[in-house]
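Sorry, explain these tokens?

___
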Amino acid sequence: MIAAAASRQTLWSAGTTCAKGTAHELKFWRSQVSTNTIDAQLFRKMFLSGARNLEIRKNWINELNVFPVPDGDTGTNMTMTIMSAAGDVSAIEDPTIDDLAKAISSGSLRGARGNSGVILSQLLRGFTNTIRDHSELDGELIVAAMQKAVETAYKAVMKPKEGTILTVARVMYEKAQEFEEKEDLDKLFQVILTAGDEALANTPELLPVLKEAGVVDSGGQGLMTVLHGVVDAYNGLELNFDFKAPETKVQTVRQPISTDDIKYGYCTEFIVKLEKEFTEEDEASMKEFLFSLGDSLVFVAGDGMVKVHVHTNHPGRAFEKGLEYGQLTRMKVDNMREEHEEKLFKSEVVQAAREAEAKQRALEEEKAEAASKKESAFVAVTIGDGLAELFRGLGVDAVIEGGQTMNPSTDDMLRAIKEANAENVYILPNNKNIILAANQARDLVTDCNVYVVPTKTVPQGIASVVNFVPGKDPETNFTDMTEELANIKSGEVTYAVRDTKIDGKEIKSGDIMGIGDEGILAVGADVEHVVLGMLDSMVDEDSELVSLYNGKDYSEEAVSALAAMIEEKYPDLEVEVNYGGQPLYYVLLSVE
């Protein structure tokens, strides 16, 4: 199985074809490439091709997750991270290396999700910081940038593990550094890809948990997927990048038309950078409004932005609607009736929109300044309506929806920190895969003190809030909250999505699994017996309280019956039940 997983990435450089007309149809075009330097236009194509290659294969990378849980998300996290940068890169039509470097670094840094996404953003940050002062790239510069990328990524991780994406990146740099013919980019890239593929195939030998599960490191696989797409573009085999949602296909046919036939005279386009939650109801409302203004509507929402194209007689109204949800960018208005007046009309409409935007921003800034900062505030990450309400009831100021099924980005953290509006903000990631993104947000904030309490589970997050003492020195509070985490034993119950072997346990698809702080504690056919089996490992003579948080797929009656079974088995323990509402995980539990 390992050999099969490790060898599959070698298919990328040979190209991939899909059935014509599918949502992920690929368009390749070849060109003869014979150069030992890379200019800005080629570098742009290479980066976008790498991003697209990852996007296409993200679901397969998700399946490489060691734990056979229903929310493997490495591929998704890495894709959303790189796509945050790819959207900005794709909009640069006449780029310089400096333009591209800034877009890649800033976009990936703020869009980083999950540990794998944060590490990818740090690799990109180190690489682009090295190349930004150059007009083109050669072999020596690429290797120097690889060195900086590896150094930056290793520094971002508190305790780097070998057998991960970090190892794959480091081995590629080392082999590239040793290669003597760096001026020959064809050969250099082949050395880099071969070294990366071999390092990826070797990750199970460095991390026994990978070998036991029969998979290679998913983060390393994601990195190699990007790089194969990058080198393919250099070689002329280029993946078409379209920043619209993959399932959206728009074909434009230009035909001569009479101005008398034009009902709506202004072709209006803009992008909204969302500054607040954009729900399905908001999307439906905005579409309905835009349809009322005109026709030929193209509307794409996702990744924190909304892209709009509409033919209307009132561009200003369309802009004003967009301003209700965030800042406008890439505004464009074409007068389809009178081309010679295009610049005049566009200038007037855009200026009106900018003035409206400036007015709105000024009002928001005045409101923010009027509200005095609190001394301390909390930002918690969780998923499930019950858990969100529980944290708010404990005094948490901002709750970010996310967790196992969707890791929030660094930008999500930054917005929540701003919303909290305090001198000292404590972030509770409540998931080990979110801590790096929280740390990255902390390092970007300059107008308040941010403390990332390294909570890896929801029960740890709850305990840390409870142990906060108002009026106490912020550093002391942070230390006390962090130390309290050692007193909490946490667990979660879900189902297996594939057959595997891990922690010495044979697991079949559909089995119920109980996962503790250090790995899988119990496997069985039903939730109740798995929870009791977990408690056999978690309860000791100092235990006093068992807390249960039932998910949306585990009823109140079921969790009440489970609590009764626990009380019968452990009569000296108090059992507390709370509604969590989390998806995929039947029960979250803790022992204190």
User: Anything to note?
Assistant: The chain is about 50% helix and 15% strand. The domain at 491-591 is CATH 3.30.1180.10 (Hypothetical Protein Tm841; Chain: A;domain 3). The CA atoms of residues 362 and 563 lie 53 Å apart. Residues 1-34, 243-259, 339-346 have pLDDT under 50 and may be disordered.
